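Problem statement: downstream parser choked on a complex file, so we are re-checking the raw output for the fe (ii) ion run. The parser issue turned out to be on our end (a line-ending mismatch), but while we're here, posting the original submission so the record is complete.
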Amino acid sequence: MQLFGLSEGKRVVGEIDKAIADALAREAARNQAAQTTRDAEVAKRDAMTARHSAAVARFAKAIASAAGLPPRDQELVHTAGLLHDVGKFTFPDHTLTGTTLTEEDWALIRSHPQRGADIVKRVHGYAEVAEIVLCHHERVDGRGYPRRISGDDIPVLARILSVADCFDVMTARDSYRSPISIDEAIAELRRVSGTQLDGHFVEIFVGVVTGSGVDFHHADDEDLETELRRQAPRGSVARTARH
Ligand SMILES: [Fe+2]
């Protein structure tokens, strides 16, 4: 399966493709359903995930920048945004395209941060990105998954990514539910501020959205390529202190 098509991250893309292929092969061995493909639905799902990932990368980087985090952290969270849902590519196709999901399907869906982190950490130099991917569904009140960690125990860049992720899911035209307006999405972010999301980053994001400076429109197919072009090569990003 080809996930990302641009050349900047060719080595990374190759390694991630291989990791996904391995994971798919394991899944196929366990579950015959993994071999079932419904091409149109799957293509739609893949395009949706690619656009969503690009938007989350862009929003998360904007939050990190507005929060005054160093450029390296801004690049890290951007990369993690591009890859945060990569674990979903290891699912049997029906899991993300079907309308009726079993408890088993939901358990599988909840495994995507761990599966994504397992894939990403196989890429040399991506351990920190993998940690952010792992934690992007944790909640500050400790009721998230997979580890149910809370507050400051959740890596700061994962808390940023969660805000960006929630906003895009609510406002995107191509999600499985009807999009809501930016004002409604801001109200919802504030409603879950302090329980699901880190209130500090919610307010920073609201400031960025309402002040603009970042394009918060959903620009469809070219989003992913644009965001890949914006990526700094990993080696160019100096190490900084951990959060
Ligand atoms: Fe996710």
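For whoever reads this later: Residues 1-6, 31-37, 235-243 have pLDDT under 50 and may be disordered.
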